[in-house]
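Narrative of activities, Objective 1.

The group set out to show that a structural description can be obtained from nothing but a protein's sequence at a throughput compatible with the screening campaign. Below is one input-output pair from the validation batch, recorded exactly as produced.
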Amino acid sequence: MEFVTLNNGVQMPLVGYGTYNVAGATAERHVTMALEAGYRAIDTAQCYHNEKNVGKAIAKSGISRDQVFITAKTWTVDYASTKRSIDQTLRNLGTDYVDLLLVHEPAGDIGGNYTALEDAYREGKARAIGVSNFIGKVFQQLVNCCTVIPAVNQVETHVYRQQHDMQTLCASKGTVLASWSPLCSGEHDIFKDPALKKIAAAHGVSVAQVALRALVQRGIPVVPKSKNAKRMRQNLDVFGFALTDDEMARIATLDERRSLFNWY
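Output recorded for this entry:
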């Protein structure tokens, strides 16, 4: 496993397991499979309604807590509700801290929401804090007024929305750009893309591995989701090959610079 070092020295795995749109026993089962496949980073959020199941899977795995990087996201409207929700998230997950705590979206009292995360960081409830879906000016405005620079900004990033400008802006502030939906949730016929298929064939890997490698090669952490154990292992196995400059340039031409999901 390879890591990216955040602005406070915390190391974040470049590949984690995403849990969007899975809940209940299904979420617990999939996280268990992911941990067995070798994942040591799990991404969840309050609005996924699966924190308890994620926590159960991690606890039952027998893996030491300090060996699993947990990312959680708040879903609140102001300082007070965010403070309460952070403590609820910790109770749900069955842990005293999370490794990365994010404001899920720029809504409500953005400053108040983020201040609650800053307090949680100082109290040791989060090893690092950041934001998600903070694009362009809204990210810049937060950085201008916060006291703890976001360690991470997780936004929609994949081969069809490559976020080069956003990555440059984040890097200029000391923030790591991270990806959600790195495989487009299977949309846009990504697995049939001729350019990606050709590159995958050249390396003897899957299209998904190429799409993920294109991001991690740029230092962008990814959280792919799969329900299949074999594909879970494949998605994690993106460090045994490297894309050439020419291949990265070909992938760059796929960038449509727009959201596939009409959300931020």
